[in-house]
Amino acid sequence: MVKRNYAAVPFTDVKLSDRFWAPRMDVNRIITLEHEYGECKKTGQVDAWDSASKLNRHIFYDSDLAKWIEAAAYSLATHPNPEVEKRIDDIVDMMQKLQMPDGYLNSYFINVAPEKRWKNLRDEHELYCAGHLMEAAVAYHQSTGKRKFLDVMCRYADHIDATFGVEPGKKRGYCGHEEIELALVKLYHETKNEKYLKLARYFVDERGKEPHYFNIEAQERGEDPKNFHFRTYDYCQAQVPVRELARVAGHAVRAMYIYAAMADLAGETDDQSLLDACDRLWENLSEKNMYITGGIGQTASNEGFTFDYDLPNETAYAETCASIGLVFWSHRLLQLDCDGKYADVMERALYNGVVSGVSLDGKTFFYGNPLETRGGYGRSEWFGCACCPPNVARLIASVGQYVYSVGGSEAMVHLYGQGEAQMKVNGGTLTLKQKTEYPWDGRVQITVEPPKDASEFTLKLRIPGWCRKATLKVNGSTLDLDGIVRKGYAAIGRTWNSGDVVELNLTMPVERVYAHPAVRQNFGYVALQRGPIVYCLEQTDHSEDIWRIAMPEDGELTARYAKDVLGGVTLIEGDALAASTEGWERKLYGDSPKMTPCKIKAVPYCTWANRGAGAMKVWLREESV
Amino acid sequence: MVKRNYAAVPFTDVKLSDRFWAPRMDVNRIITLEHEYGECKKTGQVDAWDSASKLNRHIFYDSDLAKWIEAAAYSLATHPNPEVEKRIDDIVDMMQKLQMPDGYLNSYFINVAPEKRWKNLRDEHELYCAGHLMEAAVAYHQSTGKRKFLDVMCRYADHIDATFGVEPGKKRGYCGHEEIELALVKLYHETKNEKYLKLARYFVDERGKEPHYFNIEAQERGEDPKNFHFRTYDYCQAQVPVRELARVAGHAVRAMYIYAAMADLAGETDDQSLLDACDRLWENLSEKNMYITGGIGQTASNEGFTFDYDLPNETAYAETCASIGLVFWSHRLLQLDCDGKYADVMERALYNGVVSGVSLDGKTFFYGNPLETRGGYGRSEWFGCACCPPNVARLIASVGQYVYSVGGSEAMVHLYGQGEAQMKVNGGTLTLKQKTEYPWDGRVQITVEPPKDASEFTLKLRIPGWCRKATLKVNGSTLDLDGIVRKGYAAIGRTWNSGDVVELNLTMPVERVYAHPAVRQNFGYVALQRGPIVYCLEQTDHSEDIWRIAMPEDGELTARYAKDVLGGVTLIEGDALAASTEGWERKLYGDSPKMTPCKIKAVPYCTWANRGAGAMKVWLREESV
């Protein structure tokens, strides 16, 4: 059960030609990656690898460039580009040159503060940077077959393995910012060297044990551990061993990365205790701590979680990286258990809180993704802490990997989108061709090309949690969904022949969505959703102040695809009411404001702030009638 | 017009025997003042005056004890107490002993950091402490006739006058925390020494001028002025000269104190430009930046103002001291122009956001007064920064002064409350006796005892802004209010005889109050008010989670006086709806929650958190029907 049952179909075998992802992938490759490389050059993140460089840089500079290399590597896999490859090779040369004889590699702690190496794992991100470099090296090796970067990182991993562990003489440390754990699992898969899996497991198992390593190393630095800036090791998921974590807490990105590693190791090492912890955390996150956009982390104060059912909208942090991390975690859990609850959250994050992180032109980025703003909050070209831009780039470059999984005689379709994919079923190659306008339309036609005619296998199609009514046909014959849907997937087990056609119709009306009544910030408020897409009002589409608009309970709402708006999106339009300020000129308190009719036009949340940084609102007051 | 037209009737001439203030004044005198003196002893605020004391204390320690002395002095004026007087005399002896030969007097900057004297007016509160000591000295002189404290403070004021000013050789400084300005006006009134009025005017006039004194002194300390913790001199109302202040900004208590001094000086020196600034600021405050409770200062980050129509409820700062400062300011403006708009705000603050600052037992205090909480927020016995407890004590001890004003042949009644007062009209003594259950009932009977029979003067009775329907009778004959009400006051000009009876009936139904539609936090929400009293729901009175309660638009609400509840208050009761969590066990988003009938019981906001620190809410979602 725990043992990983399924494997994601790699993005290299998935071609998307849809209207949602395909344009974004092109923009990502052609515009975003170039823009980001330019920023890395400009800010010194490339030149930091020069051994002569003594610039005072961020301790986590290495990680941003690493994520850019990873993203570029994914792009090279599908679109070779000698110029980009040369850039990366040059960087790898610098890295190799800078690497210490013992394998250590970190541009900051070699060039700027060598005396601080491994002195402050709690705060200084060394292993986090190492992890991102490992992920980049694995990706680059997969894309180009070139080993140099991978070899450099294996030497570094070997050094880390020699430095940390429970064996006598080793430090019993782990990183304040998780990341290396999941990276080591990738390195293990790429190299088949079990040492890396064992090291990943050490980092996961050691975390939060007493005597607490962060206390010990603080004392060794002559500091009082109580002076930890964030006060509690909850901040970095290290207040107790990870198997005892009771609820999501602390820095949201860190949480997602360690949870993802826990899911990895649960599958790799058949560890039910890690899966149990994941289940507990999943339930707490998805049922009590997740924005409707798939944004997570309610507050900027810890870049993370607050408390159950607390979902402030205007001050929502909902970091782009955190939603990306949520995709990583949910995708890993989905390979252990093909349960629609994981795919529903993954889809929610992908189509909303992740993609909102980058502008349609690919040049500007959100760090935080609030659910409402009075205006003045727009995307930036770069950040002092630039984690999000390259993170969203690597996600989009490899988004195809989230669409399908395979396992033995099963092939799973998690997401819908026009395109074509190849995958292994029963040892042969299965091709699936999707014809659909998803996410703007719920009709999906899948043409099946099995390895050979009369192939027996099971095709599992996800019936999304947002869908109230679905129908399914195979070669024109309707199947009874009630009989074949389990855990959100319709399992079609049959003998397949070339050209078999599956038709799935996911009814996709405009939905009024409400939050749990314990979410005090949304009490009396409604959000609009259609299919997986969450909507918002932007001021630019309204003459009335959108903060004064209320939705009549019975107002008709219609959906209309507008090909010229925001790169082509479906809009939701309808009648609403706006509170009038008439008679309120000279007073702050008075009688109930008059409500006057108005029109609303809602746009997908993921496309907001592409027409200026005006006011925006997801949750709208509902007016019962 | 600017020239002060009216004078408040001193609290020593106003006896309140009502059910709202009289018990609070007793508790204040018997319990609060004793408790606060105990805290001042315990924390070293008394012993700080010992010249041998080198304890590392707050730079503004002096001010808390000064406010306690002022409060105790007010209490002594009506209830002599040799023990309390002895305590104060002992403290004054210590002060006199500590005072420097040049008149300087500050326990911190004499005993602890003498090298820092007058080096950092921006941050270090020296003149603020001096101001509170002056107010205390004036109050103690008024109460006891003893001159020693007053003389000490005059010597200090003389030293300050010799140190600061535009004359060559003087520092052109002023305090980052205003207070001394209004204190010097009081000292001028008590001593008739115009030097002090002139000095007050200098501090007001100099504030915010360029080159900026705070920049100059920062540079003299070797600091970059840009490193000012609060970044902008808006924080202390010093970014521009006070006459140019466009809107309320910065630290709310500081703002109120300087605005009060501006009103003082407008009247004292016939300065229309200061009154114009006050008018502008008043309009901005009362029409765009004031909570329904009379709380002001929306955020903890600057202990002050944010932006127009921003009135967050749960994170409202609404410091007790700020509402007290608002009373000071509005009361001063009311003496310049008998306009009900000032008295309405003064009353709103007094009966709600000020009195909420102290528990009914007089032993615990709120610093911030939020308009809603999820619970866990209760009053404290004392604070590290203990400004609020003695501030509310001096306010309550002298609350009688806010009830009446006189001016020439006019006597004004601003507030209603059972009791009796003497005041000068046309050179003779007028006695007014109020018989009323105000604020729990709107019927007020005033018996007039003029200086002599057949006295001609005008009695002005305030018709509160909250009242939609009032009737007025004199000796049983109804007066046409439309004809005699101007600026919120009914002016009864006639020949008065002993025993004339005025009957004012202020209709006092339960009111549903709404905020300006631009207040996004209250859109779709309603508050309950009856007379001047703002209500709230407390969890302790409800089995349903009060955060999930909605008020049906047409629900009947009834008022009932409950003598055994919270010391005797009028409750508001009625039918409401509560969102059910039924069916929401395992999800965060779904269909509209079911609303189930429930009852509500609302209590006066000023009495909340006297039965444990549970959840509380002023603004309630309204359900249209």
Protein chain pair with the most extensive contact, residues per chain: A-B, 41 and 41 residues
What is the chains' assembly state? Answer: homodimer
Please state roughly what percent of the residues of chain A sit in beta strands, choosing from under 5%, 5-15%, 15-25%, 25-35%, 35-45% or over 45%: 15-25%
The overall pLDDT average of chain A reads 97
User: Share of helix among residues of chain A?
Assistant: 25-40%
Low-confidence stretches of chain A: none
What is the SS-derived class of chain A? alpha+beta
Alpha carbon gyration radius of chain A? 25 Å
Total number of strands of chain A: 24
Distance between the termini of chain A: 50 Å
The count of helical stretches of chain A stands at 15
- Indicate how many domains the architecture of chain A comprises: 4
User: What does the main sheet of chain A amount to?
Assistant: 7 strands, antiparallel
Q: Give the overall shape of chain A.
A: globular
Question: Strand order, biggest sheet of chain A?
Answer: 2-6-7-8-14-10-11
